[in-house]
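Next comes one such specimen:
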Amino acid sequence: MAEPESPAFQVIVLGPNGGPREDHVTGLLVRSTSMNWVPGSVVAVDAGTLLAGIIRILKNFLPDAIDEQKRMTEGPFKGLQLPAKSAEANAAHIFREIIGAVLITHPHLDHISGLAINTPILEAGSGPKPIAALPSVLSAIKNHMFNDIIWPNLSDEDGGAGLLTYQRLVEGGNTRFGMGDTRGYVRACNGLLTKCLSVSHGHSKQRFHPESGIHHRVGSTIFPPDQYMLSSRAISMDQTDGSFYSPARSPHIPPSVSGPKESMMASVESSAFFIRDHHTGREIIIFGDLEPDSVSLEPRNKRVWEAAAPKVHTGRLGAIFMECSFSDSIDDSYLYGHLCPRHVAAELSVLAAKVMELRDPASHDKKRKRPASGFGDNTGSPLSPRTKSRSNPSFERSEPRSGDVRAVDLPNTLVDRIDSKDFAGVSDTVSWENADPLPLTGLSVYIIHIKEGLDDGPPPEEQILKELRAHAEEAHLGCQFFIPDPNQGIWV
């Protein structure tokens, strides 16, 4: 993309895909343009691809794009002074000196493998590199990767080598830090602040126990089968922007009445990082892998949209980086904790509704017109063929077929306390078809984690982008969708 006037951020997408190629999996670099490439002024968000992505980009521009002062004159690293001749040595310099910290959204291999393989080149004399994430994420990395079995313990805990240090983030933001708009944000690197909100990435039989710091199998003595299918992570009860209502905290919810198979499942925790430029106050959001609220055991995306809406409304949120792993040809039961275009559009419609409520608070009680087209059902959410058999958002569910993924049955006490539109889309909000501007005008949405096609057919990016733009036009969102080019910096 062309560089806009006075951008606050530059984002370099090192790994734009979700596999199966191991050299293109998720990894991004973010910097504040006000810091001008000083040491520690870049933060990596996920590290499935790290050095490999940096080397690939540098090789595309070296040795031609460098001046007498050894500064890059072209490409994503334009303006960066490089000390060496080879792309490999310069990539090591960038990792050691320029990248100040690594943020990890969740501990799946396609988001952390580069971190493991690359970390041994760090130098102990420079101090440990911070790895920041939610406690459950760092627990998985500590216990299952840097554990002297899968990989050497390179951290500064439990007698490790001291090349990495774990920074455990407070879910929803640490409200003891910052004031006003920066409340809850912590330092990510020189020039950037961050706040982390959890999202759901499907379900598994492992659940994080915050007291032990270990993942335990649901159905063990730690989590007996009669426990709720809800996460046990610590949650602030401060009902501000940094917290949320948790069914797990409610004493009025009886034990799950779902079948024994479903009672053995827990949500997989992933993350959404709000990254704020300290100089301008502008922000971007980078999501890890996530699933739509409409099929989640524990819907959490709405919290992210509630936090994002005021930033869209005031023009401070410039871009969202989010996954879209498959095209709309995928059935909901084969999403495995991921998104496809119809669900991306439905999630962004929730954000759009929140923005419109801020424009006109009185519109909160109005009804949105039902689209004449077949974009979705009466919930406002687009549906796959198998999803169409679902009932409306009363949370009454028919018996699932084998292999189906469905939301947990919520008891009436909870339905009474939470408006069903929070989970069902935007059916109860005012129409924005004729809004000027449309609710998400000016917002750029960059799609990452697309599953690569290795056959001779057209690349999946083309079909996904086509479907996304069609859904956005139909839903009158106003945002623009892009597939990032790893060889071009994104300016926001």
